[in-house]
């Protein structure tokens, strides 16, 4: 079982001891689960099944859209999404039983849509690893993994095996190269150079790896120079595709994020309050401008659209930026 504050041996050099010490405050609880697989019927999503081995996520991102899911556990303070983490146990047998027909049907399984599968708890709980062991025993599973966590490198053996037998893509989430900014906005996630190293190691191992710029924070990380540098750095690691989506602000993340913005970027607060008034997402001209910029940067740096295939298969009209692939 997870012992809070006990990191995997390889994490200290990668993430720094200060970050690891802060994580000692996270409380972990066991959550008995029948299966890790959850059906996703939304036509806006490019996947049909989700797997989230944890409820809550200790990475602490200020913009994390999934904070509302702790409400289902009777917890309404968004900050607790990062300090109370439930570890799903007992789901191996049913998950394995359900996965076989899913693979046969060709459905896409997304690992890490609402919480990071390689957050610190995974160092000991190994729920993600056990799920990957199940996948590695099958063929023709379509699996996408989204993570910020360097711990994914622990599982390179399994990822290689899955890559050989199935269709695997790993989406490494990185919204900026500005380490100081990321320390404030994603306080317990690995710094950008670590995530670039993760991309490089995965690409070297022959695994299909994508840059996930999710979310773009309006006025904070949406500048052309910063995104250009980010796409260039990812491309140099061997990443061959990229995706992005715009900040989605629903309650209680909305209040939490705007409180943070008011402290860190007070000059932007009024613009956010106006732009997001009565909506959870920025569409219209802002979206058009950003998509045009991202398309241009993708072309400049030789990066494909990471979800072109899924989008084309599901619905050419589906608005890609509504995808919540955290
Ligand atoms: S955005 Fe992703 S990594 Fe950050 S707290 Fe939420 S689930 Fe965790």
Description of the molecule:
- The protein has an eight-stranded mixed sheet.
- The protein is built from 14 helices and eleven strands.
- Helices cover 41% and strands 17% of the residues.
- The radius of gyration is 19 Å and the shape is globular.
- The chain has helices at 11-15, 17-22, 80-83, 92-105, 122-125, 127-136, 156-165, 179-185, 192-204, 224-237, 253-264, 266-275, 284-300, 308-314; strands spanning 27-32, 37-39, 49-51, 54-55, 84-89, 108-111, 142-147, 167-173, 208-216, 241-246, 304-305.
- α6 (127-136) runs parallel beside α7 (156-165), α9 packs parallel to α10 (224-237) and α10 packs parallel to α13.
- The protein has 326 residues and is α/β, with parallel strands linked by helices.
- β9, α10 (224-237) and β10 form a beta-alpha-beta unit.
- The chain starts with 10 loop residues before the first helix and ends in a 12-residue tail after the last helix.
How would you describe this structure in keywords?
326 residues; eight-stranded mixed β-sheet; three-stranded mixed β-sheet; 14 helices; disordered N terminus
Brief account:
This protein has 326 residues and is of the alpha/beta class. 41% of the residues lie in helices and 17% in strands. It is globular, with a radius of gyration of 19 Å.
């Amino acid at each position: 079982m997870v012992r809070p504050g006990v990191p995997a041996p390889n994490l200290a050099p990668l993430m720094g001891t200060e970050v690891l010490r802060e994580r000692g405050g996270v409380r972990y609880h066991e959550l008995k689960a029948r299966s890790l697989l959850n059906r996703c019927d939304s036509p806006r999503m490019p996947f049909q099944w989700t797997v989230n081995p944890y409820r809550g996520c200790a990475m602490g991102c200020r913009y994390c859209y999934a904070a509302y899911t702790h409400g289902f556990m009777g917890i309404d303070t968004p900050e607790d999404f990062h300090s109370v983490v439930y570890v799903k146990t007992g789901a191996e047998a049913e998950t394995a039983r359900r996965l076989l027909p899913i693979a046969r049907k060709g459905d896409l399984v997304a690992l890490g849509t609402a919480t990071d599968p390689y957050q610190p708890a995974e160092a000991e709980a190994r729920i993600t690893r056990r799920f990957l062991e199940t996948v590695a025993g099958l063929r023709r599973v379509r699996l996408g993994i989204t993570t910020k966590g360097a711990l994914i490198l622990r599982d390179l053996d399994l990822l290689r095996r899955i890559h050989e037998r199935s269709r695997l893509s790993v989406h490494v989430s990185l919204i900026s190269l500005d380490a100081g900014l990321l320390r404030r906005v994603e306080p317990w996630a690995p710094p950008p150079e670590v995530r670039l190293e993760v991309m490089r190691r995965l690409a070297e191992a022959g695994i299909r790896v994508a840059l996930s710029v999710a979310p773009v924070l309006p006025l904070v990380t949406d500048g052309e120079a910063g995104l250009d540098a980010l796409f260039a750095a990812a491309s140099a690691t061997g990443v061959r595709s990229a995706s992005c989506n715009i900040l989605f602000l629903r309650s209680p993340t909305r209040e939490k994020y705007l409180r943070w913005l008011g402290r860190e970027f007070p000059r932007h607060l009024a613009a956010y309050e106006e732009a997001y008034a009565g909506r959870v997402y920025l569409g219209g001209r802002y979206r058009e401008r950003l998509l045009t910029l991202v398309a241009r940067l993708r072309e400049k740096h030789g990066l494909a659209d990471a979800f072109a295939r899924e989008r084309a298969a599901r619905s050419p009209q589906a608005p890609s930026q509504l995808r919540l692939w955290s």
